[in-house]
Amino acid sequence: MDYKTGDRIEYFFKGDENNEPCHDVMIVKELQDLDYEEFFKLTASSTNKAVWIKEDYDRSSKKYWTTRIDSINANTLKAGNTLVFTGFIY
Question: In terms of pLDDT, which residue wins out, 48 or 5?
Fold first, then answer.
């Protein structure tokens, strides 16, 4: 699916203590528009468990460092115009 900045993606997941369906919304943003150390996902899937964090800007590559929060060694550079998904319940 083609997403654009500002799109809202609604989804349901089983997440509360009684295993009842919960409703959530993700918001599409460009990586460069996130705050420092803000959480995001790279796909809009509700089954996607990989959560990333935006870190410092690398001037030499003109990209942002990002780190997967469940593995400190999983870091990579991403372009500022990369579409990411924020505002989810983690």
Answer: 5
